[in-house]
Amino acid sequence: MKIFQQQIQLSRRRRGFHLITSEVLQALPQISEIKIGICQVFIQHTSASLTINENADPTVRQDFEMYFNKAVPENDPDYVHDDEGPDDMPAHLKAAMLGSSVNIPIRNGRFALGTWQGIYLCEHRNYGGSRSLMITAWGE
């Protein structure tokens, strides 16, 4: 069994959904040593999230942003947690809906993603700053 782990800092991104698959792969090149295994990518933040979805058409990412803004609006008068601005509590809710980690199978030293799949960083804050990821891969 081989186990590899790397923490990386993603540069600050604007609010929205951003493909980061290549950055994850660049951060942990040892994935190429694993024939059969799993890679977990975990975000160490509560107002951004990760998911896997369409990697070809950028309008999918635009529609994700539109949908989540409608589903979890800003400036809801019922929010109690609003010290950091009107996007703060909605960002936490969006992150809870999407999740803090993704697991990707590894096969023959490569991610076994579907043809049109990629890893998204889902930035839910207007000014979220850089984001830390913990990437762990294990297998044989």
TrEMBL record:
Family statement drawn from the similarity comment of this UniProt entry? Belongs to the UPF0047 family.
Q: What is this protein called?
A: Secondary thiamine-phosphate synthase enzyme YjbQ
Which InterPro entries does the protein's record reference?
UPF0047_YjbQ-like, YjbQ-like_sf
What is the native source organism of this protein?
Answer: Mucilaginibacter panaciglaebae
Q: Which Pfam families match?
A: YjbQ
